[in-house]
Amino acid sequence: MHDVTAATASRSQSPVGELLRQWRERRRISQLDLSIQADISSRHLSFVETGRSQPSRDMVLHLADNLDVPLRERNHLLLAAGFAPVFGETSLDAPQMAAVRQAIRLVLKAHEPYPAVVIDRAWNLVDANATVALLTAGAAPSLLEPPANVLRLSLHPDGIAPRIVNLGEWRAHLLARLRREIAVTGDPGLAELYDELRGYPCDQPDVDVPSPGEVVVPLRIRTEAGELSFFGTVATFGTPLDVTVAELSIESFFPADAQTAEALRSV
Fold this sequence. Notes:
Layout: H1 6-10, H2 16-26, H3 31-38, H4 42-50, H5 57-66, H6 71-80, H7 98-111, E1 116-119, E2 125-128, H8 132-136, H9 141-144, H10 150-155, H11 167-185, H12 188-198, E3 219-223, E4 226-236, H13 243-246, E5 249-255, H14 258-266
Antiparallel strand pairs: 1-2, 1-5, 3-4, 4-5
């Protein structure tokens, strides 16, 4: 098994029962519902959450699975219970990740001439295809330095925000996605990023109500190829057993109109 990061191993922990209770409440599941779902007695679950009963490693993983706890946080739960983490966190550059890297490159290359990026849980850019440069042209070099954060790059006044035609609508969409991820993961780093992004100036009101006839939130952006319009899809790896792989997602952008499709084919 690969080593987990030092940050994971050294993170201060609350009692495992308290952490499990927090995850249950975050998922808005009652003790009774979770006990039925996990096929354990509600009395035993109550004892685990209050610390009157120390759960086994298998029980920690069983409850974490029923609560859909992310792999990184499952390692935290195991540490809090006095067990070693079981999910590795392997660098994407490691030899054993060659198949993952190849899969990423195949998806990115196959999506051209349309833009696509790979991001990690913190929304940091991991990889991108060549077309993405068309969208990021003109952004401040400091925002493009690794690890470039795609949300910061999108909404910062020195990033691509000044070229986003529907900035208020796109900003509201990104902030809503980030809020949902914070609710799912409980990640304080994402909460800090959310507060930072909300503080960026925007000369348009945040728009949560769709315009008539729209079925997705488009990204409308001015580029060297003219004004382009996109909608996005998100793909993740199925059945991951490694923290790094579990936290990767591929954001693919498709043309939202014929003009955008033709412009990108020409470029």
